[in-house]
Amino acid sequence: MRIGEIAALVGLTTRAIRHYHHVGLLPEPVRLPNGYRTYTVRDAVLLARVRRLTELGLGLDEVRDVLADDAGRDLAEVLEELDADLARQEADIRERRRRLAALRAAPPGATEPVSPALADLFAKAPATGSPSAALDRELLTLLDTAGEGGADVYAALGPIAADPAVLALYERLDELADAPPDDPRIPGLADALVAAVPDAVFDAIPEAGGTGAVAPAVVEALLAEYAPAQAEVVRRVMEAFVQRGRR
């Protein structure tokens, strides 16, 4: 194969291949009498390996170390690993398309890149201009993105999302935006919020008592999103959830 042919085969540019030769990442191939480089299947496999590794974020020095470890391996083994890499990429693309399909099917305005299960939960919630409800939605989106949510948990939260009484609780929390941290409404609202969460939610969380292991810095960052009185309500709710999850 000529350099243009192998470049097209492995999805690289001829400039990139020449650079790999220049830095010693790819050995110079045999040249024909006319001076043209000629590449083999082994060269194509090596270049495909380089491309996969750089796509994973490895620097060229790190790639060189990996290739050195590959030097004694059979071609069939390297090809099998490349095929496994492609399979993982295909699975990732399928998952992205699944999420995209859920977003396209969601009602207008529901544009968060969330899992289908969370998108379904959001679809059940009534429209509201409550800042507290919006913040709760953002936090759920963050947990979902970090992989900390779960379809069972979202399903258990479904009845809460559709309950108008819960929206009234959000509005009560909104009313504390300018209140001091010792406002007399705080204990009652915290108790009401805790009572609104059914046991099914805790049953859906594996080892729910693990919520007590949340890093203090994360808790502080969360509370900082709220006004002082609101933060006190949320702090009490979190503490009650930890105790409830340990039962």
From TrEMBL:
Keyword Coiled coil listed: yes
Domain HTH merR-type, residue spans: 1-69
Cell division is among the record's keywords: no
Membrane spanning stretches: none
Annotated SMART domains: HTH_MERR (SM00422)
Pfam families: MerR_1
Coiled-coil intervals: 79-106
InterPro entries assigned: DNA-bd_dom_put_sf, MerR-type_HTH_dom, MerR_fam
Keywords for this protein: Coiled coil, DNA-binding
Protein name: MerR family transcriptional regulator
Natural source organism: Streptomyces toxytricini (Actinomyces toxytricini)
